[in-house]
Structure formats: structure tokens, C-alpha cells
Amino acid sequence: MFNGKRRMKILFATIPMVTAVAGCAKEPYSGSAVEESVANKVAPHSLEAFHIAFAPGADETERTFSWHTRGMDKKAVVELNRLDEKDNVLSSETFEATVEGILRGQSRHKATITGLEQNQLYAYRFGDGQRAWSQTYTFRTQATEDADFNFLFFGDPQIGAGDGTQIDAAGWDRTVTAATELFPDTDFLVSAGDQVNRANKPIQYEGWFSPEELTAYPIMPIVGNHDAASFADYFNVLNETGLGGDSEASDFYFIYGNTLFIALNTQSDAVGEHREALELAVSENPDATHRIVLLHKSLYSSADHALDEDVLALRDGLVPVFDELDIDAVLMGPDHVYVRTYQMKGDEVVGETAYDKEGAAVDPEGTLYLTGNSSTDSKYYEMQDPSIYERYAAVALQLEEPTFMNVGVTDASLTFTTYKTYKTADLSVVDKYRIVKTEGDE
Ligand SMILES: [Fe+2]
């Protein structure tokens, strides 16, 4: 048990229990109608599903699920029930899952659910394709059409890098809980890589999966250096390009509302392939208003890895591509420090950026680079000599406090606000930066 909210892992003897997600400010899900629907199927035994995560799919109408079960399951399904506001089941659909392999006596499963409607409550549960079902979880989709949205960005959780797996997991749980309580209608979460410290330590993944909010909010995991070896064992992302990657992960992209997200596997130094993946993602989504890149390695840091050879090589190779493709912002992890750059182009600070009365950058040239600090308190890196980073860093802070970032998206703006999480318990704002677009996508 990592904390009092640890997800139950109980084999239910009769009918699977319908659960609400505590700590989630969304409409509670009492489940009577669904319970009845479930009862009609009379599962004689239940299925223990764990390591449950789901991510945005190719677009906002999809979610990609991944979960584990014990034993040698040959088949797996995920059942999706669309609910009205009184929890009555409006429609039900079952999606086939893959059984991708066995991990330490466990089966791993992946499924993509499609056809999701906006602003809609759903219940889901996992089955073995025969008679066993897991307990039921819920999530709510948000409106994206003609609507603003936001997502939450978390720097390296890296469970197991700090004072102990349980302590790190508790920190992760507190950050995820604080962030989703502050933004209960957030569309999804992003974790910037290094989910765990040791890829081969299942106990560290237990900690990463421990926040129960992860069964209610989609989370897009980015592959890091510490977790690369087991990334595909635990996560399911769509639109993998097969470029810039290996057997565990490659570059991928997804569209959400008006924004194209492109995630690069920075374990690979094949910048030519990263360029191909970026060009592919942009050419397939030419109408996206905003373009955001997600990386693990930080190209503009102020801490330990600021001058690493691999980082500098990636900077040399990728920055010109980001410039060419008008990438608005690049969100990054691994240096356990907070850095916001000036608007950058050609590895130089853009000469003239106009700001409005509120301090928002108006139609800025170039790209903004943001490095997130630890989201768990597990590890912080030391600031290096300012001569290394002052030429590009507008803000560089080592607060030694866990933080998360909210990114607010409208058709005409992107707003990046970073909050402290639990040490000061005040959710105070560390930094805020806003880009306003008055002339379309610049
Ligand atoms: Fe890290």
C-alpha cells in the first residue's frame, strides 16, 4: 500500500463493484443502472486488472488503453458503456484487445476505443472475453469543438530515484491529486519520461500507477532514458511512426482539438528520422492551429545535463526543424529543474518580441522551450554556472519543490502556468507565460 487511496486489488467473488473516483471533482458515478446492467451478465468470478492507463488516441474521439492481468490470458476485451447523467447506460460497446506478451507471469493488454463523443460520461471495465470482468471505472470526455481545453504537464516522476519507492509514489500521488483537483476538467495529462528510476523494477511502476486519478484521466507518457527498456510493457500510444525509435518506442503524434502534439523518442540520436516524423505529423495535420512537441531530454536546460553531448547533438539537429515547421512550444523533462527560454529561433533569442499590456507575447516569432522540474520530489539537479544558460533562459529555477504545469489552449492563445504542488500547500504560481496569436498560426 502506497497510501490510503491505493487502488483496490481485490478479486470480487460475485458481481464486480462499480466504483467512483474519489478526489475527482467530476460528477460522481453512483452506478446503480450500470450495476444492474453488469448483474445481467452475471460474472461468476472477477478479473484482476492492474497497471491501468489510458492515453489520448489518434484524436480526441479515441483512447488507448493498456493494462495487465495475471496468468496466461489468451483473449482480452474492454467494455465501454456510455452513460447519461443519471448513470443509465445509453449504449454499450466491446472492443477487442491484444495480448502482447507475458511479463513476469502477467499478461499485458492493449486496446483502442473509438467513436467517443464530447462532454460525455463513460464507464469501462476489462474482461477476459469469457465471463470474468474487472471492476468498473469511469471517465468523462471534454468538449473540444469550438471550445478551449487544457492539459497538465508533469516533469520526470522517476519513482525510485528519491528516498524510497513509497515516498516517491506518495509524492507523485500528491502532485497528480493536487493538479487534477485544481483543474478537474482537464482533458489529459502528460508525463515527460522517466516514469520510474529502474525499468526492471515492477515495484516502481506500482508506485507510478498508484494515483487512482489515472483511471479517470488520460495520461500521455513520453519515453525517458530510465524507463525506455520497459516502456512498451506498460503503455499504449498510437500513430507510432517507426522513426526515431527502437522496439520499445518510436516517434508518434496525435491531434487534440486544434493542436497537433508530436512526441519524439530522445533516446534516439537519429535526427534525420526525427525530422521525417515531424514532417509527417505536420503534413498529415495541416490545419492544426498550434503545434507542440513533447520530448524527454531538455534541449535548453540550466542543470546537470545542459551540456551533455547527446543533448547538444539533438539541439543542433532538431532546432532547425522546429524553426522550419513553426513549432510553438517544446515541453521537456529530464533535468529536474524549471527553465523557460526566451522565444528562440536558429539557436538564438529572437530579436524583437512584442508584448501586450498583460505581458503576453503577441504573434511571437520562434519557439518557446520549457523544462519541467520533478513532479514527485524524488530528485533535483544542480543549477550550473549562469554563463551556460543565461543566453537562452528567461527563467531558470531550482526550487527543490515538486511542480506541474497547466497548459491552456484556445484558438488564439497558449498559456503555460507552472504551480508548486504540496510542500507549500498553497499551489502558488511559479511562472506564467502566454502566447497570443492575432494573425493565425505564426
Ligand atoms: Fe529523470
Automatic annotation (TrEMBL):
Keywords: Signal. Residues 150-338 form the Calcineurin-like phosphoesterase domain. The keyword Signal applies. GO terms for molecular function: acid phosphatase activity; metal ion binding. Pfam families: Metallophos, Pur_ac_phosph_N. PANTHER family: ACID PHOSPHATASE TYPE 7, PURPLE ACID PHOSPHATASE. This is Calcineurin-like phosphoesterase. It comes from Trichococcus ilyis. The lineage of its organism: Bacteria, Bacillati, Bacillota, Bacilli, Lactobacillales.
